[in-house]
Design a protein that fits this description.
By secondary structure, the protein is an alpha+beta fold. It has one domain. The protein is flat and about 40 Å long. The two termini are about 20 Å apart.
Length: about 70
């Protein structure tokens, strides 16, 4: 199983009809300056499912102490 804590952040805004996804740069390493707009409903709905799965895999932090204990990667 991949280490999701070390996976790159994702920037997604999606509804059932449209999604906007920020992608890694097409011209430089370690930058996120490329955007993708998906206005096909089946594609946008797929991004909604992707976000739902990422949320289910997330580790929830309920206290400030839990946040302070996070390891800086």
């Amino acid at each position: 199983m991949p280490d999701l804590y070390r996976d790159s952040e994702r920037f997604i805004c999606a509804s059932e009809r449209r999604a906007v996804v920020i992608l890694p740069s097409l011209t430089s390493v370690m930058n996120y300056d490329t955007g993708l707009v998906a206005d096909a409903e089946d594609v946008a709905a797929g991004w909604v499912r992707h976000v739902e799965q990422a949320y289910l895999a997330a580790r929830r932090l309920h206290t400030r102490a839990a946040i302070a204990e996070l390891e800086v990667l």
